[in-house]
Request: fold
Amino acid sequence: MIIHFFEKIMNKGTPTMFLVFLLFSHCFFSQTISGIVTSEAGNKLSFVNILIKENAGDEKINQFTQTKNGVYNLVLNKKYKKIYIVANAANFETSVQEVELDNKEKISLDFVLKNEKIKTIQEVIINQKKESFEIKEDTVVYDVSRYKDPADKKVQDVLKKMPGITVNEKTGEIKYKGKSVEAVKLEGDDLFGTNYTVGTKNINVDIVEKVEAIENYSENPLLKGIESSDKVALNLKIKKGKIDFSGNIDWASGFDSDVKQVSSINSTLLQVAKGYKSFLNLSYNNIGVNQSPYDYFSNNLSIDQQKNSDYSAAKIINDNSFSSFLEDTRANRNNAFFSSYNLIFKAFKKNSTRINLSYLKDKLMQDIHNESYIIDDNINLSDTYNTIKKPELFRIEIDSKTNTTKRSLLEYKLSASNESNQQYSSVLQNGDRNFETNLLTKNTFLKQNLQFTYKLNDKSAFQFSTIYAWNDIPQNMSSFPYLNIENDTSFNTQLSNFKKSVLDFQLTYLAKYKNIKYFLSLGNSNETNTYTSEVLGLNNSKENNYTNLLNNKKASTYLSGQANFNISRLYIQPSFNLYYQRQSLNSINLENKTVVFEPKLYLKYKINDVAFINSIVDYRQKPFSEDKLFVNPVFISNRNIISNVPSLSFQKTFNGRVSYVINDLYKQLNFNFGLYYTSDKGNYFSDITISPYITHYTYFYSPKVRSTYGADFMYDKYFSFLDSVLKLSSNLTFSNYENILNNSETRKINSVTQTYDFSWKTVFDLKINFENKLTYNINSTQVEDKEKNTLRSFNNSFRIIARPFSKFSIIASFDYFHPNTKSQANYFFIDNTIKYIVNRNWELSFFMKNLLNKKMITEVDINDYSVNTTNVNIIPRYFLMNITYNF
Reply:
């Protein structure tokens, strides 16, 4: 199967990607040198440097490691005929041993170090360049000053530049070594909870001294050393003098090319005192900047919303997405006010309570013209939308932890939100039909979690938790004038309301036996989904053929477990889920009782201290979401209708992935090459009926297999001779699926997506530096033996950062976008920022955005049946004077 996989990819014309796979070859034969280092008194010595040299008098060090509890272990990264092993440590004489190598895989070599004789030496002054990071066991400490440049204002800006850390530009989600960060702490306290982007987007980077990246993070202190945690977290260390009371006020005002006033205000207040910490943020702007964790522009889910997705009801009628291939700040015509208050304090002895409050109110405006060409049927569709969205959101999160005894911890978590989103649209269909639509969506969410942990001893613990969640999403979409659906049927108002409630109980036993950590969980979950919808026509008459009344119940009793252990350099983590589920659907009198077994295996082979191979294989079975269970049609816009042919069958998914990873901070090298494969058996396929004014999507279950496979690659390296950081990444994905279009036979579709990114950043010890990022995308779809439909897009961003004087900096940006290489249309943007630091408290900045005053862009997208062209209005040229006061 793997050979077949390689042949397919090689035939796609991308053989160079797989040359990287040759890096695997060195791991098939490796030699390990290990031993014990002791003093003359027989004491085992830690932190002894073990150096590998090819020549005894050579200054070049080929490899190195350190002893831990007197023991060292080092895997040679290539074959040597002869080497010299050097052992040195403070207050001991250096010892050198010559080793003739043969074909043995393991070589044992011990050292006994003599105490160094006291010598009188002259004073020596060593000027050494400060390291940009420090490694302390499972924590990497980054020095913020070594990664920050004048363009960086907030913590998120500098996190993007730290090796091993990536930040999602859209959602703000942070990953460390490919793993999602669980928390961003402030001086050791989890002040922000799941919405940590409130902190990373708004805390002034100038007050942060260090960032700690923590592996094997355990949120519950009682489980430290018992649970096998592969979680990661970040901790922000504040500069001395900024601890008690600090913050900043940013005030900016100016005008755009239409002589409309633009402004931005952002203020923060950080307090750290004995017994409590707090962070207050107030912001307003109409220049497209989103200071909040919530995205109403592109409709991306926040980190909190992603983590609560299993407890959230479906939203059938989605408000318009204004997403663009440009960065949001170019097209997000907003009027946003956001405020958050985050507090952690001790309500009483042995208690810690965190409260997070957020409020958002925005007004987003966008004019979009979309044209679609239906390839097989030669149909042209066009829609022009003038849309205003007015979201308003209030959210509260409470997390209270109480150590009832030294061995027990009681936790209570509350997450609640109340959202209202009003959307007004003026719609012109196909140039001859006008509509005014009004969509009101309300979303009320509540989730409570009570958890009790009791530590039996240093090697075992019990944990009991219960979760109750409830979500209600009523929606009302009206249209004027009404729309004739059929001869005797009309659409004026679409009502839709999904409700979900979940009650879950779980008992978990965690333990450690020798080098094995494991847990077993026994639980029961009950979920209820109800859905009502109806269409009102003329005089509020109810259209019965468009009415849904759904009640879906799921009850599961489950057992899950996981074990973690090491065999030499191999880390093994098997896990499983076993559950019995009862499911019913009243609308069509369906019932289903199923026993499900889901195994999973994770393997990690450590090649040496910086390189490893990991693989993961899992098999999942899950019922389909509730939005595929209603039968009768629902309008989701003036043009689009959806309905389903429901089924209680399970989707069976097989996933497999293997990766080769290098994380070498000392050489500032990050490398990752991976192959992946996913097979879904049982899916909802779409039957699409397209007419000039109505498109009807009917989703139906089919037991057929849909597969996806591909490869990804990332190389990030600092080159000292260039004083530059180079990063190359790519992704290649093949997928196949099926659908039906306008009563056709089942259409088999192959899709290929390719993404290539190259970035270059200089770190010259000069007054000028450069950054460049180039992205090239290829998307293609092919329906059986028909002609392939391919779209290629290209964009490049170039930035100059100049500091002619110590307090004066200039940042110039040049962005080029070519959304379709077959088209002449391309776009060039120039931005400029001038910044002057008056003193330690005051800064002045002058922003010039979109200097060429582009007013609109045209984007192109393709799928298996249409080519879509979209015109999007963007924020015109503006000039902004900014004053910052830091305290």
